[in-house]
Amino acid sequence: MIPWLIVLWLSHSAGASAVGQFSYILAVLSPICILLASPSRNFMLSKSEHDINHIASLRFILIALGIIFAFIYGSYEEQLAFVLAIYLFKVTELLFDLPIATAIKSAKSKSLFFITVGKWASIILAAICAYFTRDIVAAMLVLALCFVVFGSGIEIRNLLLASPQHLWRLLKSTMPLSMSALTFSVYFNIPRYIMGEEEVLLSVFTVSSFLVAGTLVVVNTMVQARLHKLREAFENKDKSEFIHHFKWCISIALGLFALLQVGHVDWFHEIFWALHNDIHLTEGDLSYIYTWVLLLSVGPILFSVANYLYMASGKHKLLLFFTAFNTVVLYTLGTIFYVQYGFVALMWLILFSAMLQFVVGFMSFSFKKVE
User: What distance in Å separates the CA atoms of residue 93 and residue 90, rounded to the nearest whole number?
Assistant: First the structure.
């Protein structure tokens, strides 16, 4: 929701080029923020025990270290305040992993509800700030502050309880999965890296991708809610229980993909782009980008679901290795395909790459016999 609201603001206040610039900066910062969100929510859900205070301590230390990278990158882009604000709202948003994972594992639906209320309260406060100040940087800083208050899920005084040695061991144990999460982010942002200099084209792709991103959030949230059950079934060698939960995850993913295709209906298409100031018409009609992003979104959706197979079976290193390999190959071939054949060829290549990730993930689990 938050990047989308920022894009809505920029599309009306600054135009398509500003949307493209924001999208590219966010694409550079997102993998770093995700790496710094260690231990990740998926790590907490796929492990039987964790200490919330130790995890929070490590998170805040890594956030502080990340400011150095954001400062250097912001200076390079000559947009220091803008880049720092984007970094801070993005990295602090991930603090919500802590209370969310705790609530999911303890099956406390009321806690999840109040966490959601806290996040929406943060967004509303930032929106009010943007309305009165007309300053998107100030609004993002308000978001970051609210996320620290509502999202950490711990008392600040408890952050000092963990020893440096314990935090270092925790970081080492979580790094394979955190590196995988970074690789996921790089993977999903490859089209933005390739189209980086074509700001208008990138802006249309970014807006089109928000529908897919929203679908992925729902898919990931629902699959994460089953991740600990998948893990338990695997550890207990209960094949029928594992397959039951996996089929449920696949059904949800394919059902939401089918629902996403409503975006092709004329009235939805017109309203959607009107909300974004019709920036798809900035340089001719670029609606074809929107059409192909929706049609081929099954690839990223299955890519995301497949990765939970690796996590549920504890194959974090295999996940990191294959995703990194897939990412390098996709970026290399994607650049060639985009230059030679254009945007649509790049989208088909992404679909093929995502399906490969899914097939390998499924086969790697199948080789592990579960009685």
Answer: 5
Distance CA 236, CA 159 (A): 35
Q: CA 223, CA 183: separation in Å to the nearest integer?
A: 19
What's the count of helices (H) and strands (E) in the chain, helices before strands? 16, 0
154 and 58 Cβ atoms separated by less than 8 Å: no
- Return the half-sphere exposure (C-beta side, CA atoms, 13 A cut-off) of residue 312: 34
Q: What six digits make up the tokens of 89?
A: 């709202």
Q: At what angle do helices 97-105 and 52-77 cross, to 10 degrees?
A: 150
Q: Residue 34, exposed/middle/buried by CB under 10 A (0-12, 13-18, 19+)?
A: buried
Can you give the C-alpha Rg of the chain in angstroms?
20
The answer to whether residues 139 and 130 touch, using CB atoms and an 8 Å cutoff, is yes
From the CB of residue 195, how many other CB atoms can be counted at a distance below 10 Å?
A: 24
* Residue 27 pLDDT greater than 70, yes or no: yes
H or E segment to which residue 332 belongs:
helix 316-341
Over the stretch 296-338, which tens digit does the pLDDT of each residue have? 999 889 888 888 777 777 677 777 888 889 999 999 999 999 9
Q: Check residue 226 and give its pLDDT.
A: 78
pLDDT given for residue 48 in this prediction: 55
